[in-house]
Amino acid sequence: MQKTILLILLFILPFTLFSCNLPISEAKAPDPGNTDEPPTPPPATDAPTETPTDTPTPTITPTATTIPTITTVPTPTWAIVGPGEVIAPILMYHDIDPEKVSRYNTPPEVFIQQMQALADWGYQTITAEQLTQAITEGAPLPERPVILTFDDGHYKVYEYAYPIMKEHGFFGVAYIVANRLQAHGFMGEPQLTEMAAAGWEIGSHSYTHADLTIDHNQAFNEIYYSREDIETDINQPVTSFAYPFGAFDRYLGDRTLKWGYTNAMGLGGHWTHTPGSVYYLQRIEVRSGITMEEFAALLPWSTPPEPNN
């Protein structure tokens, strides 16, 4: 009996040792099966937000119940403004990069001069949400309100614009392209969360920066899902939308209202905003290379306020 067992062991042992010494490269990976993973978002792009020359001004009026309550405590110089027409220049920037040369870039040294001028002329920053509430319901605003907006979400806005503005007690509105949140050279959750805690408003600039007037089938993903993804990523509410390229039509204005935004930004040259323009608030582009005299011409007030005002 013992001889029989010994013969069996001697027969099996070589095969066992051979199978244990198979090279690792020959092992088969398990089949993952259908994981139902969501599709990968489209790649990031860096298209400029240039406006068509024939962009109409919409007349979409939101209901007062869609506007959340503003929690900012006004300074003693603030007073109730609205409802109705509100004068507040909205300036549009893109990048603040010391090395880039582009119409859409303002060098930091120039940006410093512009922010100092705004402070000297008595401007105080507000958000798009504060402006919207003043237009639709009436809300406290400073004597000389200004909104400073930054499109596309460039990282240099965090690196340069954010600290420069902070020195003056200014904050802005950053309009983020959703598929760039994890892209190199763009702001992500850490930067946007920090800025939001300092008073900045975070808005959506669509999902892929597409001209939505060309294909309305893109509108739901670009407008609705961009807000959903940005809110999830930064854990902050997103209630303001900026149309890529300033491109607008009535369909997009209606859907922006329907899909949860309280206001939207376009392009233009007016300082006065009304209830009928809440979904196409006109912004004035600050181009690269303008002089301080040209910068002053973009604004309704370009001298220090009177001491008694």
Q: Tell me about the biggest sheet?
A: 6 strands, parallel
How far from one another are the termini?
Answer: 113 Å
Q: CATH superfamily of the domain at 95-297, please?
A: Glycoside hydrolase/deacetylase
CATH architecture of the domain at 95-297: Alpha-Beta Barrel
The percent of residues in helical segments reads 25-40%
Give me the strand/helix succession.
Answer: HEEEHEHEEHEHEHEHEEEH
What is the helix tally? 8
Mean pLDDT metric:
82
Rg, rounded, reads 27 Å
Task: Give the overall form.
Answer: globular
Low-confidence stretches: 1-57, 61-75
Care to describe what's here?
With 309 residues, this protein is of the alpha/beta class. The protein has a domain at 95-297: Glycoside hydrolase/deacetylase (TIM Barrel), CATH 3.20.20.370. Helices cover 30% and strands 13% of the residues. The chain contains eight helices and twelve strands. The chain has helices at residues 2-20, 108-120, 128-136, 155-166, 189-197, 219-234, 250-258, 292-297; strands at 79-81, 86-87, 90-93, 124-125, 139-141, 145-152, 173-176, 201-204, 240-242, 263-265, 272-273, 284-285. Strands 3, 4, 6, 7, 8 and 12 form a six-stranded parallel sheet that branches. α2 packs parallel to α4. The radius of gyration is 27 Å and the shape is globular. Mean pLDDT is 82; it is low at 1-57 and 61-75.
Give short descriptive properties of this protein:
six-stranded parallel beta sheet; two-stranded antiparallel ribbon; 8 helices; disordered N terminus
